[in-house]
Amino acid sequence: MDPYAALRIKEFNVFLGARFAMVFAWAMQFIVIEWQVYSLTKDPLSLGIIGLMEVVPAVSMALFAGHIVDQKEKRNLLVKCLLGFSVISLGLFILSWPDLSTQVSSKTILWSIYVLVFLGGIVRAFLGPTIFSLMALIVPKKLYPNAATWSSTTWQFASVLGPATAGFSIGLIGVHWSMCLIFICTLIALTAISRISRKPILNPKIGEPIFQSLKEGLQFVFKTKAILGALTLDMIAVLFGGAIALLPIYAQDILNVGAEGFGILRAAPAVGAALTMVGSTRFPLHKNAGKKLLLAIFLFGCCIIVFGLSTSFWLSVGALFISGAVDGVSMIIRQTILQLKTPDHMRGRVASVNSMFVGSSNELGAFESGATAKLMGTVTAVVFGGCMTIFTVGITTLALPSFRRLDLRKDIEEHEVAE
């Protein structure tokens, strides 16, 4: 297959540009918030609360959001999501105004940040399913694996530059103007999405009662073992491997590398994942996908343990880089499974379940890491998370033999024949 096939579609390139700006802004914003909150509190639990404030609305609204996405036109819905994101970024820009700290207490600023993060979680509940559904309407089915790879690659490149830019911009221009840069990126994403034409609604059950719709979506996910296995495995790995949330502590108190070192540490996993994804455009991962996914998450757990124990900056960077590379394998395989196994009229609901299983587990993992760091110490908490990830791989390998045998080549061939 042509590795650039999806990129030959003009609207898909516009979609990737908007996705890059969105992810860049979101990743950068989360890092700047982490830095600002830890600077205000010096409490590792406060980093966990950031994750909790986002994950609660994201999880509680996810299924409802999936139903709405399947019922509505996707381009306009994404525009509304980006408008909400822009308002939140503007609010954080105002809260980071240096003179505000002389007029308002640190506690008030802290809880105002938490409120905006909470609102961001609501936006995120709709954002993921909308993006997933819109992409499937832009490219033909036979190009889904190629498009999923490029979309994930774009996500990772934005995840590389977002955190790195955040780390350097905090040191160079401060938190306030870093937030301004984030707000500008949200406006760029909004402008790009407006260039995509409106798409047809493929759901034949418009107006279907919400509870019946949600029941149908959940039943599909739990009956489709390939989807259920991939989501469950990745959710547990991300939940217990959430060492990234503790990077401000490592940068400031353990490795002593400051804001610039923090940016490098935060970007290292995304660099590894991005390189993996670029390589996968020429070396597809469809063959023996189940075994590759299990091996990738096992290696991810090992890297988290090495990072947790390391007191060397460059060893820590290397461990995070490799963790990102194997996580990139996991992401590509998971997204390909979702695109190939999900019917068009259920994409919003399936993507919402995915956001509950995997997307929100990043923030829940951040809370778990912050809480365990508070209880047992930072290093012990990170090592514990890596061990639990490896344990999960072992249990999954034994409990789901059919998942070990998962191979996606037949599904891809069927879509090519259908086209």
From TrEMBL:
Organism in which the protein naturally occurs: Maribacter aquimaris
Highest taxon listed in the record's lineage: Bacteria
Residues passing through the membrane, by range: 12-33, 45-65, 77-97, 109-138, 150-170, 176-196, 226-251, 263-281, 293-322, 375-400
Lineage per the UniProt record: Bacteria, Pseudomonadati, Bacteroidota, Flavobacteriia, Flavobacteriales
KW Cell membrane (keyword) present: yes
Topology in membrane: Multi-pass membrane protein
Keyword Secreted among record annotations: no
SUPFAM superfamilies: MFS general substrate transporter (SSF103473)
Protein name: MFS transporter
Compartments where located: Cell membrane
